[in-house]
């Protein structure tokens, strides 16, 4: 707008002129760089949990609470017990209702956690079988 006013002797910008100026501005933007920076800022590219600012995107203390556990606790618990203690009771109950040959059909946002929980459960069962 400032450049347009300088080029037009300080005239006010009219509605009729605004669309053309907006198009020039949008066309001059480096959209590729904007999208790359957006994906980097959200941790989607390169895909890494370290790229996400959890404080900014998830202001609740849930993330801090689950990641500030005493490392001495883990060896005392079985891995499955440790994982299950950090999953909401209702969600864990829903996980336990799914049979081994079935896929998770609940909320898609819990699918990765379900698959992780299932792997830990199978590893612990395998470990118990192998040590007996």
Question: What does this 3D model show about the protein?
Answer:
The chain has two domains: 2-54, no CATH class; 70-131, no CATH class. 62% of the residues lie in helices and 0% in strands. It starts with a helix and ends with a helix. Helix 7 (79-85) packs antiparallel against helix 9 (111-131). The chain has 132 residues and is an all-alpha fold. It has helices at 2-7, 15-28, 31-41, 54-57, 62-67, 73-76, 79-85, 89-97, 111-131. It has nine helices and no strands. It is rod-shaped, with a radius of gyration of 26 Å.
What string, H for helix and E for strand, traces the elements in order? HHHHHHHHH
Number of helices: 9
Q: What structural category do the secondary elements indicate?
A: mainly alpha
Number of domains: 2
Biggest sheet features:
none
Rg, please? Answer: 26 Å
* Strand coverage percent: under 5%
Residue runs with pLDDT of under 50 for 5 or more positions: none
Question: What is the number of strand segments?
Answer: 0
**Terminal Cα separation, in Å?**
77 Å
> In percent, how helical is the residue content?
55-70%
> What is the overall silhouette?
rod-shaped
pLDDT averaged residue by residue: 78
List keywords for this structure.
132 residues; mainly alpha; 9 helices; 0% strand; rod-shaped
Compact summary:
With 132 residues, the chain is an all-alpha fold. The chain has helices at 2-7, 15-28, 31-41, 54-57, 62-67, 73-76, 79-85, 89-97, 111-131.
